[in-house]
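User: Assemble these into one structure.

Assistant: Restating your components, then the assembled model:
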Amino acid sequence: NAGVTQTPKFQVLKTGQSMTLQCAQDMNHNSMYWYRQDPGMGLRLIYYSASEGTTDKGEVPNGYNVSRLNKREFSLRLESAAPSQTSVYFCASSETGATGGYTFGSGTRLTVV
Amino acid sequence: ILNVEQSPQSLHVQEGDSTNFTCSFPSSNFYALHWYRWETAKSPEALFVMTLNGDEKKKGRISATLNTKEGYSYLYIKGSQPEDSATYLCVPDSGGGADGLTFGKGTHLIIQP
């Protein structure tokens, strides 16, 4: 099993460009999440999807949109990238009740210049 | 969001020594407590999800205990090895984690050869 797969692993964008970060899980998990990690800070929740067909804002949603395409896939879109969005992005998933914890992808390192 | 305190923030341990650190969390509105290990340049990995007062879980040389009445959990590492160097995150869960967990900065453990 691949677990949670994120693409791309690295990306450099110019200010104002748009891009979509892809995330897919093969564990039949209901819930999926997008976090960002910045130096000196813990993981911050951007958006989450408690179940297929639903999405909700997390702690830092501004500048992002998400799509829960189906049960497997949860994408994160930056419509107009800004240098403040330079970060490492992690996708995660969990079963209902999270009794097994969250399973994280390997991360996407995004630099906006 | 449940407030959590982990101590110490940083810890240096000699290889072969055993160590432990503490997690304090509000005892009200408790559903579960997650422990994660996060190695540098990797993604967080779930160690334990604990739900019952008095619960003790073990994974190799790592174990954890839980006291939900007084709101604390201990993580123990027996015979530390260099590969144990990581940040250990304790994450309270108030409702099954489906609306996103709040991750703090954790305890940064460095094992010195």
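Chain A touches chain B through 28 residues (CB under 8 Å).
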